[in-house]
Design brief:
This protein has a single domain, classed as Aldolase class I (TIM Barrel), CATH 3.20.20.70. 43% of the residues lie in helices and 11% in strands. The protein has 14 helices and ten strands. The protein has 356 residues and is α/β, with parallel strands linked by helices. Strands 1, 2, 3, 4, 5, 7, 9 and 10 form an eight-stranded parallel sheet that branches. The chain has a two-stranded parallel ribbon with strand order 6-8. The protein starts with a helix and ends with a helix. Strand 2, helix 4 and strand 3 form a beta-alpha-beta unit.
């Protein structure tokens, strides 16, 4: 899709034209990945973070947060719950916490892989490629790293680099992750102050250029205990992308159209903006994945990357029941098996054929 076409979809008024976008995205979803909604159990391992991203509630300098790190046994309890609930994947997400050592994560992966059939997705930020490699060898299947925005100046403005490091290219990191053999996921925030429609259109084109297996997007939600929480606007006038649920849905739809076979979650940020319908709308605008939260309740409210995050007071069982009800309400079915990316399966088959 051309940049102009994408910009037209992002900016057209609500009404019949926009209904066409939704219908096309939903049809493409149905034809390429079917009606199954894959369930990924999310475990938030640690809210300790060495980074100071200007928008994120668990940034290093937010001293109002009580910090935690989960134990190996608690993670295994989540893994067994995921199996019991019929989920195919466990997603291990956390801040850039040096205490989540390469050896610890390696041990977690090995235990999950020996004791269950679950696919393992990691979402642990910018780590040393040697660690990514080691975890892949330990059995991890997938890695999520959002590039947040493809506008480099905007990215640098809101992501102070790692201490002692120069600013980094997430695009290059995503290619490294792909080379290591991960199913690779990325995505962006929508409506970052200073983000223009043309930036967002380029983000969406980049999803296709990177041949992503997974794409997760959500509106930016201001957090009062962050520097960006008090920014008024980015001074972009009517070129500024709004951080609304409606804009989030347009981006989900366009992500589906440019990457028809990708796994696309209806994210927590969508659910946070409309507690009743946000997640269901995501599933109707092209998404085919839900990530119910399995994090032990005592840690849940502490993983507050943005305020009033959906499901922050639910038990894992309530999160599962809510997801199953939504799927049934839409006449869809819970996915069976691991829900691997079609792109990755194809790629693995062709490279095997080449080897043979
Ligand atoms: N609003 C919306 N999304 C946020 N994230 C972090 N902070 C916020 C916020 N304030 C998103 C980022 C990150 C993902 C885990 O959560 O895109 O990659």
């Amino acid at each position: 899709m051309t940049k102009q076409e994408i910009m037209r979809w992002l900016q057209c008024p609500a009404g019949s034209e926009l209904d066409t976008l939704q219908a096309r995205a939903d049809k493409t979803r149905h034809e390429h990945v079917g009606d199954a909604v894959h369930l990924r159990g999310l475990v938030e391992l640690s809210n300790i973070c060495s980074r100071n991203c200007l928008y994120c509630g668990i940034r290093r300098d937010n001293h109002a947060v009580q910090r935690y790190r989960i134990t190996l046994e608690e993670i295994m309890d989540c893994a067994f719950k995921a199996v019991e609930y019929g989920f195919g994947t466990l997603v291990l997400q956390g801040g850039e916490d040096a205490g989540l050592t390469a050896a610890f994560i390696g041990e977690v992966i090995r235990r999950i892989k020996t004791e269950t059939e679950l696919a393992v997705t990691l979402s642990l930020g910018e780590r040393d490629p040697a660690e990514w490699k080691m975890w892949r060898e330990a059995g991890a299947d997938r890695y999520l790293l959002r590039f947040e925005t493809s506008n480099r100046a905007l990215f640098d403005r809101i992501h102070p680099p790692r201490e002692g490091h120069a600013s980094t290219s997430r695009i290059a990191m995503l290619k490294t992750l792909q080379d290591i053999g991960y199913e690779t996921g990325s995505g962006v925030m929508i409506g970052i102050p200073g983000q223009r429609y043309s930036d967002l259109a380029e983000d969406i084109q980049l999803f296709a250029d990177l041949q992503l297996d997974m794409i997760g997007v959500g509106p930016y939600i201001p957090h009062p205990q962050t520097p960006m929480g008090s920014w008024k606007d980015g001074g972009m006038g009517d070129e500024q992308v709004p951080n609304s649920l409606a804009m989030g849905l347009r981006v989900v739809a366009l992500a589906r159209l440019v990457c028809p076979g990708a796994n696309i979650p209806s994210t927590t940020a969508l659910a946070t903006l409309d507690g009743k319908a946000g997640r269901e709308m995501g599933l109707c605008w092209g998404a085919n994945v839900i990530m119910p939260n399995l994090t032990p309740l005592k840690y849940r409210r502490l993983y507050e990357i943005y305020p009033s995050k959906a499901a922050s007071t639910e038990t894992p069982e309530q999160s599962r029941d809510a997801a199953l009800k939504q799927i049934e309400f839409l006449g869809r079915s819970p996915g069976r098996g691991r829900g691997d990316s079609l792109y990755h399966l194809q790629y693995k088959t062709t490279s095997k054929q080449k080897e043979g």
